[in-house]
Amino acid sequence: MSWDVIVIGAGIAGMTAARILADRGVSVLVLEARDRLGGRIHTVKGPTGLPIELGAQVIHGDNPVLDLFAQTDLITVPDPDRALLWRDGPRSFEPGDRDHPMAVQAKLQELDRVMGSFSDAMSVPRALEMAKVGASASAEFLAWIEQLTGTTPTTATLHHVVHEAQWAPAPAGKNVPRRGMSEAAERLAGSGITVRLSTPVRSVEVGHHAAEVEVDEETFIARAVLLTVPPPVVATGTLKLGGLAEAKNSLAESLPLGPGRVTAYAAKAPAPDTGFAFLPDVGLLTWQQDSPIATLVSKGPAAGGLDLAIRDGSLSSALVELSGMALTPTPYAAHDWTSDPWAGGTFTAATATASDGARWAEAVGALVMAGEACGAGPSHPYLDRAVGTARRAIDHLFHLTSKELAHP
Backbone dihedral region of 25: left (phi > 0), alpha (psi from -120 to 50 degrees) or beta? Predict the structure, then answer.
């Protein structure tokens, strides 16, 4: 069976493009390996029916995804009433503290101004030393950056951490849909779009004016294919690209995703307030008032050590003391993104360059690319980046669909 466009991946980038194309009268087939929409957005229901986010946690800043919702459909996530840090016990952790990561960041910004062009040759550990940041505060700063980016910043330079957005905190303003983040992808589905879930694509043979897409027992032909899967899916050979796009198989290796896992813990009673805690070498813990769930997001190497922390009981006691909730030591729900064969991690590692992203984003024959990896470089790897790459792909896809359908 033939289509104008086949979209591979039903994450926010794939569904955004599919919606725009379908609204323009283009026939669209979306093929998704998972049994759900959303990709790295993954919402499950909690014990009281409230949503639990095991993937993307919030919609950051002035984000085009917000256009899918009325304001009444959204919950604005407030700044936490209290912020805590756990290191051998809880302590207050406020931005005004001398050793808070934001205060350390300010010291690095001042050092960057003094160093000028030399800051691009100075490692972050050396910069922390020159800025006279103590050993404990330096370790906490490096762990903080690791949790923001999923990448250990010891290989980054002072210039990177000060000037490039992917190393910085997220933009102000956070919202979540009342019925869960996955609703964003679900709202994009519907009229004019055919979606096949649980249909992993094994290979794509790319020609100049058409492409063949092979799944387990079928082959589809399309005038154009939009590939939105994360690069590790291609780098590992889980999905193979052939024909004109064969070079992208090795190119995908330059765009790894940072490791990460999300774990939700249930409590016997709802949280009395909204809170946030930073556990160096473990992750970021959040809880919302009136919800019986606390969520731990662990990125970078910390995600790999999470099992050990759970088994020895130290994490469980920390979670209870931090949140004030009687949390069960056994996770209610969890997702390990690093071992997910259709992701390979959380989002594109901060060490990826704009050149890496641009080369991955290049269209080849009938293959067009989208997804947050296409925008790798000095920007945040959030939903708006994925949506932006999908919108930029539309004109090229529309041009390809005007050609006569032909075999590769």
Answer: left
The label of the residue with tokens 């529309």 reads 398
Which pLDDT value is given to residue 341? 96
User: 219-227 and 367-369 as β-strands: parallel, antiparallel, unpaired?
Assistant: parallel
**DSSP 3-state of 75:** strand
Is the pLDDT at 268 greater than 80? The verdict is yes
Distances (CA, A) of 310 to 156, 258, 296, 354: 30, 21, 12, 37
Q: Are residues 234 and 113 in the same domain?
A: no
In a domain, 88, yes or no: no
* 264 phi, psi to nearest 5 deg: -110, 130
| Domain, as residue range, for 158 | 95-167
Q: Which helix (H) or strand (E) holds 59?
A: strand 59-60
Confidence of residue 279 (pLDDT cuts 50, 70, 90): confident
Q: Single out the residue in 307, 336, 365 at which a domain terminates.
A: 336
DSSP string across 275-319? EEEEETTTEEEEE-BT-SEEEEEEEGGGGGGHHHHHHTSHHHHHH
Is the separation of the CB atoms in 212 and 219 below 8 Å?
Answer: yes
Torsion, CA 374, CA 376, CA 382, CA 384, rounded to 10:
-50
Looking at the structure, tell me whether residues 133 and 236 fall in a common domain.
Answer: no
Contact 296, 310 (CB under 8 A): no
Q: pTM above 0.85?
A: yes
Structurally, the chain folds into a number of domains equal to: 3
In this structure, is residue 16 part of a structural domain? Answer: yes
> Contact 346/258 with Cβ under 8 angstroms?
yes
Task: Kindly indicate the confidence band of residue 405, based on its pLDDT and cuts at 50, 70 and 90.
Answer: very low
